[in-house]
Design brief:
Length: 234
């Protein structure tokens, strides 16, 4: 099963790399063959840059998943998870305004977790980015949290079109897309949610999705709260 999964992953990765590479080559070849105005050359270069950025994102995510598969040890440092979530929401605020989606951070507990702050920041970056991408203009994305028996629960809920029941079990699979054509237009790689699951599980947590067509989606991350060691008495 591991061999089949590795072979499928390699084939999927190769397929994903071919698409932006083909677009890069086509844009460059047409720009060279057909004389254009300065504005048209700028448009062609802009398309090349967009495809190059997509390739860069894909390469970074493939490397991250590769390190996860190899079981690279994570640094175990305690940090405030609520601050990391707030940073992710703040980072996405401009994208939310451009998409005309109301992004709001609601009540969230002040708790510490242990692990890699940058990786967990990417978890919430990916979840919020995904929610904004599939929420139509005029909709909303809510981020909120709570504590539950030494665990912290963070939810990202949107008012998008929702996910069909038959697709829910696959949303965290690598390269899986609900709408492949739309994901390609918006620069999606089909790796964001698989990275979320890999990172959360490496931190001893779980992630799940709840959704129904026409009722939006909620992605729920559950992580263990860091145990604070008592200070030694003098």
């Amino acid at each position: 099963q591991a061999f089949v999964a590795a072979r499928r992953f390699t084939a999927d990765a190769a397929h994903e790399l071919k698409t932006p590479l083909a677009s890069l080559r086509a844009e460059a070849e047409v720009a060279l063959i057909i004389p254009r105005s300065a504005d048209e050359y700028r448009d062609a270069l802009r398309s090349v840059v967009e495809e190059a950025e997509r390739l860069s994102r894909l390469a970074e995510r493939l490397l991250l998943l590769s390190s996860e598969d190899a079981g690279v040890d994570l640094p175990r440092r305690s940090f405030r998870l609520d601050e990391t979530v707030r940073e992710a929401v703040g980072h996405a605020s401009d994208a939310a305004q451009r998409a005309r989606v109301d992004l709001k951070l609601e009540e969230i507990p002040e708790v510490d977790v242990a692990g890699d702050r940058d990786l967990l920041r990417q978890v919430f970056d990916n979840l919020i980015e995904n929610a904004l991408k599939y929420t139509p203009a005029g909709g909303s994305v809510r981020v909120h949290g709570r504590c539950d028996d030494r665990r912290v629960v963070i939810e990202v809920a949107d008012t998008g079109p929702g996910i069909p029941a038959e697709a829910l079990p696959r949303v965290f699979d690598r390269f899986y897309r609900l709408d492949a054509s739309r994901s390609r237009r918006t620069g999606g790689t089909g790796l964001g949610l698989s990275i979320v699951r890999a990172v959360v599980e490496r931190h001893g947590g779980t992630v799940e999705a709840e959704s129904a067509p026409g009722k939006g989606s909620t992605f729920r991350v559950v992580l263990p709260v860091a145990v604070v060691e008592p200070s030694a008495s003098v």
